[in-house]
Amino acid sequence: MLRQLGVDAALSAESRAGGLPSALPGRDLLDTPALGISPACEDALILKEQLMIDPRFPLASWFLIVSGAGFLIVYALPLLLAPLRWARWFRWEVASSPTDLTVYFGRCLGGVAVAVTWAALAAASDPEHHVIVFDLIAVACGLQTLIHVDGAVRRTQPWTETVEIGLYAALCGASVAIRVLLLT
C-alpha cells in the first residue's frame, strides 16, 4: 500500500504539472481524508485505476490483454457455449449421437477457461500486484503443452491440436519470462 501511494504521489506531481481534472469519476467512493491521501494524489490513484495498460509494465499488460482476449474468443466462449461445434472447428470427429457427458465436460472446460481469461483481463491494469495470474497461465499452458504432446505421440488428436503445442509452449514461456524478468 505504501509503495502504491508512493507511485501515486509521483503521479500526483504530474497531475499538478499536467492538470488532471480535479473531479474524476468515483472520487466520492474513497474516504481519502481518513486515509491521509491528498486530493491530487487521489486524482492520480483514480486515473491509474481507469487505465487498462500499466505504464510501468506495458508488456505485461499487453500480454494479459492480447492472450486473454484471444483465448476468450477462440477457445473459452466457444467451448462454454457450443462445445461440439468447437470440436468440429478443430477437426475432431464428433459422434452422430454424442453423450451428455461429452457436452458436460466441454462446457466445464469452457467455464474454467472463461474464468482464467477473466482473471488475466482483470489483472492487466496492474500486473505487478497480480503476479499469481502469470503463474496460473504458466501452469495451465505448461499442462496443456504436455497433454497435447501426449496426444500427438499417441496419434489420438487431429493435426490442429498438435499445432497448438507451439502456442501453449510459447504462452507458458512468455508468462514465465514476464513474471521472472519484469515483475520480480
TrEMBL record:
The name this protein goes by in its record: DUF4345 domain-containing protein
Keyword annotations from UniProtKB, A to Z: Membrane, Transmembrane, Transmembrane helix
Superkingdom of source: Bacteria
Transmembrane segments: 59-81, 101-124, 131-153, 165-182
